[in-house]
Amino acid sequence: MQDSSEVAKRKLDCYVYYLLGESAGVENHSQAIAKLISWGFNVSPTYKACKNLDEVLDYINHWEKRRLKLPLETDGVVIKVNRIAHQEQLGFTAKSPRWAISYKYKSESQSTQLKSITFQVGRTGAVTPVAELEPVLLAGTTVKRASLHNANEIARLDLRVGDYVFVEKGGEIIPKVTGVDLSKRSAKSKAIQYIASCPECKTELIRQEGEAVHYCPNRKGCPPQIKGRVEHFIQRKAMDIDSLGEKTISQLYEKGFVKSPADLYDLGEEQLSQLDGFKDLSIENVLKGITQSKSTQYSAVLFGIGIRFVGKTVAEKLSLHFPSIDKLMKASYDDLINTPEVGEKIARSIIEFFSDKENRDEIKRLKNAGVQMESDYKEPDKVSNVLGNKSFVISGVFKSYERDQLKEIILAHGGRVLSGVSGKLDYLLAGENMGPSKLQKAEKLGVKIISEEEFVSMLKE
Length: 461
Ligand SMILES: [Zn+2]
Description:
Number of domains: 5
Low-confidence stretches: none
Helix content: 25-40%
Bound molecules: zinc ion
Strand content: 5-15%
Largest sheet: 5 strands, antiparallel
Structural class: alpha/beta
Number of strands: 11
Strand order of the largest sheet: 5-4-3-6-7
CATH superfamily of the largest domain: Nucleic acid-binding proteins
Number of helices: 19
Shape: globular
Radius of gyration: 27 Å
C-alpha cells in the first residue's frame, strides 16, 4: 500500500516458520518450533510432527475443510523433513530446499452468471477481455470480475453472455473462469463477437502471427497506453515516485501537461497548481519526488522506460551486460540473445524499441533531465593474471559461489567470461543441474569442462 498510516492501522503480524542459526542447539525442526514459542515468537498453531507418510496424509485430509475457518487464507500445506541433519544432507536446488514441499488443495469453485464482457487496454496496447459477473462469494471475498486473457480463451470456453460459469481463485489474486455450465445455457444465446476496434480510441486492432492477444497499434494516441506508460514509469519497482498516483497522472494527461515520462521532468509549480485539490504542500511533494527519482539506479530506469517484455529481472541482467543505455542501443541482435534471460522475443522487442525515433528522443530528454542512464557497476580491480586471458562459460549451480561472484573472480584474475559455448572457448565451468545441450556442445567441440573444485585449484596456481 502507498499509505503508511493505513498500513499502521492494520496491525500487521507474522508467523515464524523457521529458526535460522549456526548452532541453534536443536536436532530437528519441531524442537526449533518449540524454542521459537518459548522465546515468545508467533508460530502457526496448526503445525504437527508426523511420524510417517500416513500421518502426513491424515493431516492433509484433516485440514482440507477446517482450514477455511482459520483467521487467514491458506491454499495448502508445507511438508518438511524433520531432522536437521537430513535437511542439510538433502540441501537445495537453485530455487528451493529439497527437504520441504507444498501440497496444494484444489481451489474452491463457484457458479455465477456472466452479465457481459468488457475490454481493457493496457500500457502496451494489449487488449484484455474481462468477464463482468453477477457478484458471488468466493474464498472469503466477493468476486465481480474475472480475466478472460484473450480471444482464444473465450473460444476455448465457448463462452456466451448470460451463461452460468464456474469461477476459481487459483494461486493468483485475480479470479478466473474455468468452464461453462452448459445445462443452464439459454437456447437464444449467441456466440461472442470479439471486438475489431479499440474501445478507447476506435483504432482497428491487430493480432500478430502466433500471438493470442489483440493489440491497439495506436501507441502514440491511445489514452490508456499513454497514461499507462507514465504509471509504469513512476511505480515502486521503477522510478518510485510515490507522490504521484493514477489520478494525478490522469489529470496531468487531460490538461495536456504529461504525454510521456520525460514530460514529468518539465513540470513546475505553474502546471501543478492548475490541478484539482493541489495545495502548496502537495505541489512541493510531487516536485521533490520527481527530483529524487533522478538518482534511481539505471537498472530500474531501464525497467521503467517500458520496453515490451523487459521486466524487472531482465532489466537487471541487461544492465549488467550493457552498463549504459548507449551500449544497449548499439547492441546487435546476436549481442542481445547472448545475454542471460534474453531470448529471441525480447531481443527483437529491444531492437524495435530503439529503432523508433520517438523513443530515442524520449531517452535523450530523460538523460538531459539527469535520469541515470549508466550503471554504477565497475569492473572488479585486477588481483592477479593467473587466468591469462583464458575464456570461460559459467553454467549450472555451484556450492560455494553465486554465478555473478564467479564472473567477478574470473575477471579479477585476468580471465574473460563468455555467454555461449563455441569452438574458441577455453573452459566450461560446470556446476550442478546445468543444461544438457551446453554440455553436449562443449564435449563435441572438445572444450575443457572443469568443476568448481578444479577452478578453485587453478586460481591457487
Ligand atoms: Zn486504442
